[in-house]
Write a structure and sequence with these properties.
Helix 6 packs parallel to helix 8. This protein has a 5-stranded parallel sheet with strand order 4-3-2-5-6, sandwiched between helices. The chain folds into 2 domains: about 260 residues, Aconitase, domain 3, CATH 3.30.499.10; about 140 residues, Aconitase, domain 3 (2-Layer Sandwich). The chain contains 14 helices and 18 strands. With about 425 residues, it is α/β, with parallel strands linked by helices. The mean pLDDT is about 95.
Length: about 425
């Protein structure tokens, strides 16, 4: 019997010929990552448990700042200082406040490779499955253990295969695809499952769209999402990592379930308050008044997302009744948007463009909601209180977000005129 992608990775990492779903293994960890949120607690726990002992490999421990950058509170500044001091003491790499979202930064700087096992303090580490890495968010104790010993305990997940066939209509995006799937499968539809996305739609999908899909596996309680690389992904990884060995499942791999989706007739979708799986077609809530629009996050802060928004906003003004905040995922994306003139389009439309960060994925950033405010967000979660007590969040694509900003109400982007 053949093996799925996650089975191949965990077998190799645990020095076993093969593993099966449900097996418990100790796997070698290739990279340990922590961020300015959660990282300080990891450091305090590490020093409590191991004192001045070195980490297992300074070249394979990384700290990323992406949540509170630059810090706005003394506590946040002190936490980042603690991280900087730890990095200097242990000789580990730190990406400071001028980089952007951690997972994207690691990917862009060549830290993520196929066949690797990666752990971090972010629940959306699993978006790195786009590079063939078994990357997961874990708790403080697991991070500390991995950082000291370079190994971690895993239960091998079952794998679900999701085939997506068809072509998207204009103004319908990969975000609409994954929102639709989340709505169909539910918030617990992939509990502790590995996912392999496949099908004609997937094979031609670029890096940015793939990140959008894999970043929302978490919203179905999935463990990791993988996509077999196409030529674009292989070229990207080769450029960033110099040398790669791609990974794909065996033809006779066994899946716990195979799901089929056709997107030929898919329309723009929206996740309504207060759960990511409360998904409907945008047209069903069209006309709902909104107060704010956010484009960014680890799900939709890439250059393709910004291009989509700019195409809609060019030579137009957002509604005087609506605020708009746009946050590129990384400084590399920011620079590319600057070179392409996208930032000028956004600012002339009336939007606020911020420095790269996680931004309005959670509370504590410029743009939190007042009680009763309604926002459209291209992020991945819309739970109560996520970016302000008493506010409501709808999850949408960059196209729906930009179109709605023009009207100050939810707008189906396929119905735009002019």
């Amino acid at each position: 019997m053949g093996a799925t992608i996650v089975e191949k990775i965990l077998a190799k990492a645990s020095d076993k010929k093969n593993v099966s779903p449900g097996d418990k293994v100790w796997a070698k960890v290739d990279l340990v990552s922590m961020r300015d949120f959660g990282g300080p607690n990891v450091i305090l726990k590490y020093e409590q448990e191991f004192g001045d002992d070195p980490v297992f490999d300074p070249d394979r421990v990384v700290i990323t700042f992406d949540l509170h950058i630059p810090p706005r509170q003394i506590k946040e500044a002190n936490n980042q200082k603690l991280c900087r001091e730890f990095a200097k003491k242990k000789g580990v790499k730190i990406f400071d406040i001028n980089n952007g979202i951690g997972q994207h930064t690691l990917l862009e700087h060549g830290y993520i490779k196929p066949w690797s096992v990666v752990v971090g303090t972010d629940s959306h580490m699993n978006l790195l499955g786009v590079a063939g890495s078994f990357a997961t968010g874990v708790g403080i104790t697991d991070i500390v253990t991995a950082m000291r010993y370079g190994i971690l305990w895993y239960r091998v997940p079952e794998t679900v295969k999701i085939n997506i066939e068809g072509r998207l209509k204009e103004m319908v995006t990969p975000k609409d695809v994954i929102l639709y799937i989340v709505g169909e499968l539910g918030a617990d539809g992939l509990s502790y499952k590995s996912v392999e996305f496949d099908g004609s739609f997937i094979k031609n999908l670029g890096l940015d769209g793939r990140i959008t899909l894999t970043s929302m596996v978490t919203e179905m309680d999935g463990k990791i999402g993988f996509i077999e690389p196409n030529k674009e992904i292989i070229n990207f990884l080769r450029e960033k990592t110099n040398n790669i060995e791609t990974i794909k499942p065996d033809k006779d791999a066994e899946y716990s379930e195979t799901l089929e989706f056709n997107i030929d007739n898919l329309e723009p979708m929206i996740s309504c308050p207060h759960s990511p799986d409360n998904v409907k077609p945008v047209r069903e809530v069209e006309g709902t008044e909104i107060n704010q629009v956010f484009i960014g996050s680890c799900t939709n802060g890439r250059i393709e997302d910004l291009r989509t928004a700019a195409k809609i906003l060019k030579n137009k003004k957002i509604s005087k009744n609506c605020r708009m905040i746009i946050t590129p995922a990384t400084m590399n994306v920011f620079k590319q948007a600057l070179d392409e003139g996208l930032l000028r389009i956004f600012t002339e439309a009336g939007a606020v463009v911020t420095n790269p960060s996680c931004a309005l994925c959670t509370i504590g950033h410029p743009g939190v909601l007042a009680e009763g405010d309604v926002t459209l967000s291209t992020s991945n979660r819309n739970y109560p209180g996520k970016i302000g007590k008493g506010g409501s969040i709808y999850l949408v694509s960059p196209a729906t977000a930009a179109a709605s900003a023009l009207y100050g109400e939810i707008k189906d982007p396929t119905r735009l005129k002019g």
